[in-house]
Design a protein that fits this description.
Number of domains: 1
CATH architecture: 3-Layer(aba) Sandwich
Largest sheet: 6 strands, parallel
Radius of gyration: 17 Å
Number of strands: 8
Shape: globular
CATH class: Alpha Beta
Number of helices: 5
CATH topology: Rossmann fold
Structural class: alpha/beta
Strand order of the largest sheet: 2-5-1-6-7-8
Oligomer: single chain
Distance between the termini: 10 Å
């Protein structure tokens, strides 16, 4: 599922609060951060970056505590494909972004950020996190990460359908 919203709405901050709540429920959770613009993930000058510049189609950076896989793509890889390929055995994958393509979206709309309208159309978001007086069947306050975690945990079977 993806937390979506306009720029500076507080998506990252909410995810930082949501993850410990999901983990406290006994869930194994992974995350994906969508970057809408073309950007180098690796850092210029690093040995791994040099491997990619030399022509490697994919490479891994590995240490005793972390592993990063970098691959060149001809087109954007869908969130569902990423979830299947890299998160087998996880209970839930929480993405930040993928506002147009995520199969399950929760919109974060923060009035205090100065936005005037929702990103998602009617019926597109399975829940709404907001500080605005907006109606939604599944509406959560900006500080209700625990409630959102319980909401998601209760729908794991549905969230696995994509």
């Amino acid at each position: 599922m993806a937390i979506v919203g306009k720029s500076d709405s507080g998506k990252t901050t909410f995810i930082e609060r949501l993850l410990p709540e999901l983990i406290a429920l006994g869930l194994r959770v992974g995350t994906v951060k969508h970057h809408a613009h073309t950007a180098d993930i690796d850092h210029e000058g690093k040995d791994s970056w040099r491997h990619g510049r030399a022509g490697a189609s994919a490479y891994v950076v590995s240490s005793p505590s972390q592993l990063a896989y970098v691959a060149r793509t001809d087109e954007e890889v869908p969130l569902a494909t990423i979830a299947r390929r890299f998160f087998e055995g996880f209970d839930l994958v929480v993405a930040e972004g993928y506002k147009a393509s995520a199969p399950h979206r929760v919109e974060l709309f923060r009035l205090a950020a100065g936005h005037e309208s929702l990103l998602c159309g009617p019926g597109e978001a399975m829940a709404l996190i907001t500080d605005a007086p907006l109606e939604h069947e599944h509406r959560f306050a900006l500080d209700d990460a625990r409630g959102m975690a319980r909401f998601l945990a209760a729908r794991l079977d549905t969230l696995r359908e994509y």
